[in-house]
Amino acid sequence: MVAVAETVRPSPRRRRLPGSGTLAFIGRLFRDKPLGAFGFVICVLFLFAGIFADVLAPYGYNQINPINRLKPPSERFWLGTDNLGRDMLSRCLYGAQLSVIIGLSAAALATVVSVLIGIVSGYLGGKFDMIMQRFVDAWMSFPDLIILIVVVSVVGPGMGPVIVLLGLLYGIGGSRIIRGAVLSVRENAYVHAAQSTGASMPRILWRHILPNVMAPVIVLFTTRVGAVILAESGLAFLGLGVPPPAPTWGGMLSGSGRSYMYMAPWLALAPGLCITIVVYAINVFGDALRDLLDPRMRGSR
Amino acid sequence: MSVPETVLEVRDLKVHFPVMAGALVRKQVGSVKAVDGVSFDVQRGETLGLVGESGCGKSTTGLAILRMIDITSGEVKFEGEDISAYDRSRMRPIRRRMQMVYQDPFGSLNPRMKVSEIVGEPLEVHGLASNRAAYDTRVASLLDMVGLLPDMADRYPHEFSGGQRQRIGIARALALEPSLIICDEPVSALDVSIQAQVVNLFQELQERLGLTYIFIAHDLAVVRHISHRIAVMYLGRIVEIAPRGELYAKPLHPYTQALLAAIPIPDPEVEATRPQQIIIGEVPSAMRPPPGCRFHTRCPRVMDVCKSVDPPMRDMGGGRAVACHLYEA
Fold first, then answer.
1. What stretches pass through the bilayer (chain B) (predicted)?
2. How many CB atoms are closer than 10 A to CB B281?
């Protein structure tokens, strides 16, 4: 049989892929995606800094020291002090706790909401999609700020409401992006093949649609982390975020950071750099994750 | 219980797609008659070739039989069971016995799944593998059946060539041991050299497993090799159906004649001197098919009657039938 003989050549270039466990995955990350691994390490460092802020911080985050107010960075205060003489390093470390938690959890919530709405709406299509998308339109046509002010004034400010609200705000808007990706993926013949085999809808969504829209899902998540951290600062500025004296990076940036920008630039620089570094790290890590999860990209860099 | 010998009976199958217009109030302004009164039978173990140019409704016919699109009217009897009005849940057990092989070897395999997962998914969906070992054994034997190596099970589709991918698609279709496989132009996207291999594989599997195929293709050269009978479609209708030998030896319908004449002959001298029969013009719109015979606008042998009277399917004996006024008694 000519037909068979031609195709049964095993390819010699094949190297054994490591298993699919978490450790093996991190191994691949470090070997194939050094930049992504760098981002991953930075994220982990900030998480640790936040978790162990109590141990690491040289001062309390609200320890006022009027004699040493607005001191530039020195040996005693590595990142300087603010207008109340509070140590900026300590505040940034405690800020990591709040900002990173808010950033990650609100972005995660937003992504889950986007994926749920986007996948179901995009896959089902038809009337369901029509009605669903009109709700999304209506939601998006409200100014975010109005929704935030109304809800926060009812339930009161705090970390919980901020996470849920930002998660929903970004999540519903982002569902459009996922829906768009689903619309193109669902037309593939492999989706059709699964349907014609009699596969259930949850199975098709989970095994066929979701893995093939992972690229936009991850990009959505990584961009949202930064957006949420910044949005929280806007809320803090209006007194709708996590109430002071709790140190959030956004709050520091928009509060004393802005007022004393010309006299003491380190007040804005320290939290600003923290936000920049975390957002950058999450972005490069997200890009690496996206590539590693795609079997077609394996082995290439 | 004896297995019915007629696997599939299609009677006067119609698939019309509504055409909507209007910005605010949408209403139906017409319909595309993709399939408009198609009837045929498929016997166990045979291959029915379904041929026609793009847009003639051959793929739609295939999809309608699988009940992947709604049937407007008509009857589809699969192994004696009329499935034309079945809903999703009643179709589920039927889906085990009807499978499809797709045209596009790239789009038809999920790039995020390993070959073993692709081939084994139908087993999982229908709960046919009791444990991991049984599953692996079955997948390995399916891969072997289509000429792939067992160690290819751990790879992803992008690591394969077009022909190999098509083999994976065939293995997936075989997983449930279906009685009918609808092949929707399974070789049109492949290189000519690979086409022959894949067609041979189809034939070999048919002999070994007693499979029944509906083989959709847009040219007569490909189906010639594999089909036992061939149905030629034009604009939503079957214009001629005949055993392969007869159809190629003596095509009756002018459209079939034109299609056959379009196959080049691999001899430059014969090719240069043989009479050319070229059909001119475009296929008319399936929204407004011409009155009378649908082919009359392009037919080289058109008569007056063709423009007003729709020719019925006429049995010509010996298993062949043709819809053309030329063959009226």
1. none
2. 7
